[in-house]
Structure formats: C-alpha cells, structure tokens
Design goal:
Blueprint lengths: L4 E6 L9 H9 L5 E6 L5 H15 L6 E7 L6 E4 L1 E3 L26 E3 L4 H8 L7 E4 L6 H15 L7 E6 L9 H21 L10
Parallel strand pairs: 1-2, 1-3, 3-8, 4-7
Antiparallel strand pairs: 4-8, 5-6
Helix pairs in contact: 1-5, 2-4, 3-5
Length: 212
C-alpha cells in the first residue's frame, strides 16, 4: 500500500493509562494510505522513533505526502494547530524515562525556532464552524515533549537528514473513557482531526516547493 500520511502519537505519560493522541491516532490510522507510529514519551527516543518511521518508508520507496504529529494538551475541547516550535526544553514534569531537562536548547547549534510547513491559518479558517471541536492556530507548543518533537522533526527536515515533507504538530484535548464526554468525546475528536487531515491534503504543495 502506498503511504500518503505518516501519523505519530504519544504513549500515555504522567501516570495516566490513556493518551488522547494515541487513542485518536489509532482510529485515524484506518484512513487509506495512513501509517501510524506510536512514540515513547522520552526526549531523544521520541524524535528518533518518528524520524526512523519516515526513513523506513523512504527506503521502501513510499515517501509520505504529509506528516502529522499528535500530542495531548489540557482538558479544553479545542484542537490546536501549532505554527511554531522553539529550540528550548523546560519540562514541567519528568518524561517516562525520568528525564527532566530544564532551560536548555534542544539542538545547541540549531535555529531558535522552526515553523510548520503547512498553512495552518488557512486550514483553521477553512474549518471554522465545520467541525465538532473548534480548530485554532497556536503560537506556543509549550516546552515539553510536544514542542521537543516538533522542533526536532522540523530541524532534521531543514538539515536534510530526512525528506522535507509537509509537517504539522497538532495538540488535542485530553480524553478519558470514563470522562464526562465518554465515547462521544473521542468520536468528536476523531471527526475534527479527520477534517484537518482532509484540509491539509488540499493544501499540499508540489514536491520541492515546501515553505513555512
């Protein structure tokens, strides 16, 4: 099967047994041409797993048209498209390997920031009022693993370490099976993300013309 979308999501962390990004990604992986990579919540290992998945597809002659990464944020029922990732770690809690980098660069020689290579403002605007959950542009992915992953992937693409395909990090609201939204909450999230994927595919540039 030709892979057109590489999707990544995180394992549970912080003592939780569920990560909304993983739960939603498992369902989105049913979309035709989609490959899912579940990432450890560990600095270094997360980006290596994501980039390894991209490299394996490339080596198999199936470079994806698009790469999206999902991560869990707080309880607010909003899907956030992250415009920028910064070269900075300041973990508010330990990752799943016990690491907690504070106030340090992700790549000491890297640029201060990297920008999503998809038109996030246009995607959010075109989806306004059309999805179960609001879709918004965010200018801060935080300083934990989500920002770390987004920056590391974009930096690797900019350096030519991996193919520079369109890439976007998306923050999703937290969700638990026994929470107030129940199964409907997950269905709403998956439907919203499916619409984001569809709009992202519409916005794909021709290969070799990717810009922030």
């Amino acid at each position: 099967m030709s892979v057109s979308l590489l999707l990544t999501a995180f394992e549970p962390f912080g003592g939780s047994r569920v990560n909304a990004s993983q739960e939603a990604a498992i369902r989105l992986a049913a979309l035709p041409g989609t490959r899912l990579a579940t990432l450890p919540v560990t600095a270094g290992d997360a980006e290596r797993a994501a980039l390894r998945a991209l490299c394996r597809l490339t080596a198999a002659g199936s470079v994806p048209d698009l790469m999206l990464s999902l991560g869990e944020a707080g309880p607010e029922r909003v899907v956030r498209l992250e415009k920028v990732a910064v070269n900075w770690d300041d973990f508010r809690l330990r990752d799943n390997a016990g690491g907690q980098p504070r106030d340090v660069a992700i790549h000491p020689a890297g640029q201060d920031a990297r920008f999503a290579t998809l038109p996030v403002a246009r995607i959010a605007r075109d989806l306004e009022g059309r999805t179960p959950l609001p879709v918004q542009v965010s200018l801060s992915a935080g300083a934990f693993l989500c920002n770390h992953l987004a920056y590391a992937v974009l930096e690797a693409m900019a350096r030519g370490d991996v193919p520079a395909i369109p890439y976007l990090f998306i923050h999703v609201p937290s969700w638990r099976p026994d929470g107030p939204e129940g199964e409907q909450g997950l269905q709403d999230l998956v439907a919203t993300l499916g619409a984001v994927v569809a709009e992202a595919r519409k916005a794909l540039p021709k290969r070799g013309t990717i810009t922030p």
